[in-house]
Amino acid sequence: MQTKKQITSSHYASQNLLTSFQIKANMSTSRRSEERNNNDAHHFFKLILIGDSAVGKSNLLSRFCHNKFTLEFNSTVGVEFTTKTLIIDGTPIMAQIWDASGHTKARAITDAYYRGAHGALLVYDVTRHITFVNTQKWLADLRNHADPNMVVTLVGNKSDVRQSVMVLTEVGKSFAEKESLYFVETSALRATHVEKAFVDLVANIYRNQINRKKDMEAHETMALSRSKCVSISSGNNEPAHYKLKIESFSLLSEAGIEVYESDVFEASGYKWKLEVYPNGSKEEYVNDHISVYLVICDTKNLEKEWEVHVYFKILIYDHIRHNYLTIQGGDGKRTRFHEKKTRWGFRKLISLESFTDAENGYLFGDSCEFGAEVFVVPKYTQRDQCLSMMKPPVTMNTHVWTIPKFSVLKDEPLYSEDFKVGKVKWKLSLYPKGFKTGKNTNLSIFLRPHDVGSDEWKVYAKFKIRVKNQNVAGAHKSEGAVIKLVVYICMHFRSVKVVKT
């Protein structure tokens, strides 16, 4: 179904251009807005077809969208567009394709449609050399009025008429490489490479956007890492203490509001508020980022020379992925609020470019949401731990404990004399008749540190306990001895000292 709208533009009339033109919308429904709302596409790209008149732009569009071709030449009046949904890398993408008239007098009309376009097919007729020459003028217009990130494909159409070719493939390729354009030759008549031209253009736009987003996120992360905002993560958990939802973010700037102060909220026994600078803090000489600060309130009720130590996080809601971007300050360390410093935060929380990019999901229908988490911690921790590791000695330390008249010992445990290895004194204990589970069935021997000077010591030791078999000279076996017992302890150790502050 086709709908036609007659639009009169006083802007063009003031420039002595065409005062009216037709837009023919070739769509599956009578209302373009209804189709866009009902479509499941995740992305929307505007494409434009440009080039001289009669190069085959309309037939390329008709062949791609409806698989139709007409031999009758009807010059496009003004601008017409068609929409089609494509699947690129598993993602539904709606392409709105505009076909502008190639007549010189209508080129001023198409200039307005360059703005907002994501990609362009610059078409020439391979059988008419002048149309190829004029691509330089079309390209100049494009670059003067369009987004610098626009993706452009140079299309040599009517490649089926080989006997009349005036522009060789190599010439088209060379020009495309020189101007950093993609290149393809097509035949709308035979449907050769028509779909490839459109699909590849949309795919290149989509992948370029993904790459730019990754670069932007990497740049954002590096910028935050160079400041005090080094911990960046994302998660599904909602803010623990406060959420600030702004319904019309753009109106803050339009109303000339440099800083928006949130309501006071309570967290960890103290009162706080957020300060949001929609266009950056002028005091901090920021104008391309959003600045957000956490402020402690009602400090008059606090004791003299008060200090509050906190871990705090600022969160930004992602409406597309339904999670939160979390930025934690202070290089992961405690932040100290006191009488002379009641405000801490991020002068460059996130760039306005990244925040307003619809692909990121932070600003959805001019609505955004910030969050805050504030955890107060003691000025000093009640217990610190210091780890002191000692390298093991090259040779093992050996201590020999000889026990005379072993066969006459009773159940009572026997203790060796102290012996020192490294900085620690040690003691062996022996249970002739066994201990606990080894009672009356085994000989039990234990090694323990002795007189370390504090109960706060932890010692990690590597040791071996060997019992000499006195029936075989020079042999060492883990078997009980008769009459006399000789115990060898070979060890090295590592120690950990835990000290209270």
Automatic annotation (TrEMBL):
Cross-referenced PROSITE patterns: MATH, RAB, RAS
Protein name, entry field: Putative small GTPase superfamily
InterPro entries named in the record: MATH/TRAF_dom, P-loop_NTPase, Small_GTP-bd, Small_GTPase, TRAF-like
Major site of localization recorded for this protein: membrane
Coiled coil: none
Keywords annotated in UniProt: GTP-binding, Lipoprotein, Membrane, Nucleotide-binding, Prenylation
MATH domain: residues covered: 239-374, 396-501
Pfam families in alphabetical order: MATH_2, Ras
Topology with respect to the bilayer: Lipid-anchor
Listed GO CC annotations: endomembrane system
